[in-house]
Amino acid sequence: MKFFLRRVLLVRADQRGFSLIELMIVMVILGLLASLVGPAMFKKLGTAKQKTAKTQIEMLMTALDSYRLDIGHYPSQQEGLEAMVVNPGDEKWDGPYLAKGLPKDPWGNPYHYQNPGEHDTDVEIYSYGGDNRPGGEKEDADVGSWQ
């Protein structure tokens, strides 16, 4: 019996690596952590995209205000936001007003421009959110310059 115990202990001491049971326990623990932390992180991702859209819209509104100061009016509905990047043919144009070009919203869609605005504003810039349709909730909610 002593010989058997000594043999088992020696074999155990010489082995390298993990047993199947040890690996399974680690996998279960990682799975539990992922199931607890994952949903919280995805919720933060949606909120971050909404905040990014608001920040980009504020930047676009600032560029529109610079355009209006130079030209004397906001771009027409037909000229759209592209007038801040490419000269629409006005000699007063002192752009481009956006150094890196016209950004897309955080969901990869172009921003919408409306002149005149519908919410007691001269112009409006908005994104339809994650679903790219009017309305919606949470990440799919619209984000606009009037908010």
List the defining traits of the structure above:
single chain, 147 residues, mainly alpha, Glycoprotein, Type 4 Pilin, three-stranded antiparallel sheet, elongated
Question: What class do helices, strands and sheet pairing give?
Answer: mainly alpha
CATH topology of the domain at 48-144: Glycoprotein, Type 4 Pilin
Task: Kindly report the average pLDDT value.
Answer: 83
Give me the side-by-side strand order of the main sheet.
1-2-3
Tell me what portion of residues adopts beta-strand conformation: 5-15%
Element order: H for helix, E for strand: HHEEE
Structural summary, described in words:
The protein is elongated. It has helices spanning 2-14, 20-71; strands spanning 112-114, 124-127, 143-144. It has a 3-stranded antiparallel sheet with strand order 1-2-3, with helices on one face. It is mostly helical. Helix content is 44%, strand content 6%.
Short summary:
The protein is mainly α and 147 residues long.
